[in-house]
Recover the amino acids of this structure.
């Protein structure tokens, strides 16, 4: 999805003219409403993470990983606050009723990992995989919201979302680094004995 495509006048016209199979007009929403829906979705996702990250921090064994998760918890609280600032700027009423089902599922997978694996490097490896899936979801969400803000000329909102996007990308890179040690440890503990 490129900015060029999203801002293409021709494309927009054809989308607006689109009709459903039986000839009735589809419920076509504006890009503004797409931005609003996306902001509410990631707001729910971030709030669910604020609740879940302490649980994950307690479940990990590796100190660097625990530190990274705790650090990201503090960042996540800032991400929630930034989104609330954006809601104020756009006069969007924030609601707790719309829950992001994707984040709910990803957190559920993390809980399953904690229940199934005993404390140690293999569980840490599994939790890093889960945490990186979460980061990639967030990167995709913030990346596309940045593009929407850009095409709508919402420069300040684009900048705020961009700051969070950078932090999600940094977190993902940190997790990749930590995974190298954790995976080595897990390998030593399990595979090298066979
Ligand atoms: Fe975040």
């Amino acid at each position: 999805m490129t900015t060029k495509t999203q801002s293409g006048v021709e494309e927009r016209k054809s989308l607006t003219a689109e009709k459903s199979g039986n000839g009735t007009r589809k419920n076509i929403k504006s890009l503004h409403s797409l931005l609003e829906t996306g902001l509410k979705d990631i707001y729910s996702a971030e709030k669910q993470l604020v609740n879940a990250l302490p649980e994950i921090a307690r479940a990990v064994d590796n100190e660097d990983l625990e530190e990274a998760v705790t650090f990201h918890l503090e960042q996540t609280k800032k991400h929630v606050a930034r989104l609330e600032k954006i809601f104020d700027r756009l006069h969007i009423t924030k609601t707790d009723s719309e829950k992001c089902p994707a984040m709910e599922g990803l957190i559920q997978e993390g809980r399953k990992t904690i229940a199934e694996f005993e404390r140690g490097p293999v569980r840490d490896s599994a939790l890093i995989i889960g945490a990186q899936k979460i980061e990639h979801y967030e990167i995709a969400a913030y990346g596309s919201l940045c593009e929407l803000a850009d095409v709508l000329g919402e420069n300040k909102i684009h900048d705020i979302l961009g700051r969070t996007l950078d932090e999600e990308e940094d977190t993902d890179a940190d997790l990749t680094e930590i995974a190298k040690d954790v995976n080595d440890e897990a390998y030593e503990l399990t595979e090298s004995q066979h």
User: Anything to note?
Assistant: Confidence is low (pLDDT under 50) at residues 1-17. Residues 155-189 form the longest helix (35 residues). Residues 30-193 form a domain with the Ferritin fold (CATH 1.20.1260.10).
